[in-house]
């Protein structure tokens, strides 16, 4: 673990959450008896900065929480290795808790982090719904929030604020890359009928808006034959699969992610869905756990990408990241690991630049425009945080499924890459202005309560 | 057509078609009945139970939401949340509202002023767009409102422009804050209600849909259902909200009708194909039977040499053809033998009569001529008497031949080496052959033992040898060879003489046919008679100008055959 400070994990009950629920409240909802809490890095006393992260550890998104924790551990180790060489690396303490994919839990955990753990930076969140709520805490409390996994572009455009930063590709970036792939595909096979299915929460809806904007900007002509919104963690997609088949699209773009995406593909594969329809998932479909679930006989026609790939780019930095993750955990990482790894690195570099974590405004200034050389950066490019949106700017690669057994137990990986430059995937200032203006009207009357 | 109607093949064809058509009709009737039963079963008895269960799921879902709404509207901390006067109560209410909003079926919890304008919103995890992150397009004034027991059911707002459909359940707060008429609403996900209608409908035949108060019919995904044809009213969920059934008879009947159509097309194709096969078969059969009839007619007309063409096939008609040919062959042989036997019987009787009448006077004449010749001193007369004696000798030989032909002596067969027969024959013929400058040779498997009368065989061979020598010109050759083939001794007498013209070849065995100036025409006839008597056959092959070969086939003595094999 860390060379500058002994890191340790601890688990225990979270009294703050339990206190929240009164007698009447507990009659209405059922809380988990125990929620995991993990502490990593320096102790509270010696830490230069305390980071409070929220990741799910259970349920369909649990894998991403666990991989995020491993990514944080890898970042702390890399920083410790730097410190061992005499570089002025800040000592970081990370506390992690599980919001159980619920916005209300997320808000309460974030408030507890601030009140009880005195964290100076919040981080994490897999679900954009939880992130949306915690971002409001960040804005209200003027505490930096580093998003590492959730992807709704609304968080950096309409709902963006001074203290919110995101260090992983957002739905705009993914859909901009996907729109370019679809444009090129249309030139080859002439598809025109498009359907979209996304989870019925902010991330799903924003992804569809992002894709529509990106396709319009590229001048792609198509007909939308269906828009479908199953709920997050939907166990049965049969009515939606039947509705998609009935609409007869040529391409279905989906923003369903994680275990939901795996469930959707398995259920669709049991029908004749893939005989006539190509399924595209540009933001999360190439996540490693989804590729493992495809087995050795994936459905035909899948078009996939994700925010980080174990087999792209084939740079020494990426290969080292994947190999060390595997050595530590005995399995290969999902993209969540690289997001969390990036989040901790970003905090460390910002603290270095700001000369400490006491002054949040200095930290914000340090994060704005911060450059980071990351595993997912192709040769000759380093990711950076956009000063206006606070969204990290990164390249994207989209491809199709090919047999590849280098990362067992996966039998397939994504190949046949189409790579899109980072600068091409940024939303234009005009788009940002238009979306923010639209959201501003009547905003005050409908703000969530303080 | 007249021939077709009465032909056996036509009758078989019609019978087969009738059986097939009958089977098809029975099958079709069974199919229709099965399809009807299936449809009745799918749409009938189980339908009511399933629709009732579906309605129960929807009602239960709404009941739970109403219970949740009642709890919230009655909670004492809610007014503090709205007016902010009691911080502790407001914090408790905030925590409560956040948790309550965090259901996947809720977008959030909304508070309305008395005038219906939005007061506050609590976004849940599924919140998206208006009214949480913007107020664009947020207007509920045009939505249908149904009020049941003080609770307003507002909506549905249909999915459009990338937004999901939703429904509000609104109730006034029990203990309102300063502003009376404040109400609380659950912002419900419309699809959470419609998903309970079920996936592929009831057996995929009857799809339950949800009819909203404004008459909109929603499918299971919460979208406006399209392509509806035959809607039936189902149970009511709320006033204005009810389940309707879309009887998609096409879902099951269309495939069945398509299957039936293909069944008929396939059956018609099969019947046509079989009909074509029968027609082709009928034509072929009639042609081949016509050949049989022609053959039988030719035979009846006396053309014993008519034979049917024998193809390579082994079917029934070919077998009949071969049997016909065998029959014609045997009939022809039988008639030949009968004619020849009758002819020989007549000729034999005649010859025997003539011989008896002529032989005694000839003997007297011969004795007299000899006596006169001894007493005659005149050389001229002596020569005349000698010529007369020679002519009497010739007449005697003719008479002897006639007797041999007319009254053949029965053979005494015994094993005899072919070589012995050739040796005796050669000793008799060689002086004549040498005199005429003809080479006579014998050879082959001369050890072959023939089962035959040796005297008669020597007679036959001498006769054949004489014919051969006489057919040759000086310098010619006559050969006698024997081989053993399949239990028979094949003895061939060949010459390289003038040969026999094809038109005479069939007649050479006829009695009294001869091309020689001084022949009796009985030599070959007698030879064949003897060979027949020894269970052999005689055949003649000849090419004019190249020579003639007469072949005798005689049974081999078994012991001689074995000996021949061991030597060979």
Describe the protein's architecture and organization.
The complex is a heterodimer of chains A (450) and B (568). With 450 residues, chain A is α/β, with parallel strands linked by helices. Chain A folds into 2 domains: 15-170 and 314-393, Response regulator (Rossmann fold, 3-Layer(aba) Sandwich); 172-309 and 396-429, 3-Layer(aba) Sandwich (Rossmann fold). Helix content of chain A is 41%, strand content 16%. Chain A is built from 15 helices and 16 strands. Chain A has helices spanning 15-20, 23-28, 62-84, 103-117, 128-141, 171-189, 202-218, 238-247, 258-269, 273-276, 288-293, 316-329, 335-354, 360-367, 429-440, and strands at residues 37-41, 49-54, 92-97, 121-124, 144-147, 164-166, 193-197, 223-228, 251-254, 278-281, 303-304, 371-372, 383-385, 392-393, 396-403, 412-420. Chain A has a 7-stranded mixed sheet with strand order 8-7-9-10-11-15-16. In chain A, helix 3 packs across helix 13. Chain A is globular. The two termini of chain A are 40 Å apart. By secondary structure, chain B is α+β, with helices and mostly antiparallel strands. Chain B has 4 domains: 2-43 and 257-296; 52-247, Beta-Lactamase (2-Layer Sandwich); 316-404, Helix Hairpins (Orthogonal Bundle), CATH 1.10.287; 412-567, Histidine kinase-like ATPase, C-terminal domain (Heat Shock Protein 90), CATH 3.30.565. Helices cover 52% and strands 19% of the residues of chain B. Chain B has 14 helices and 17 strands. In chain B, the strands form 4 sheets. Chain B has a 6-stranded antiparallel sheet. In chain B, strands 12-14-15-17-16 form a 5-stranded mixed sheet. Chain B is rod-shaped, with a radius of gyration of 61 Å. The interface between A and B is large, with 55 and 51 residues.
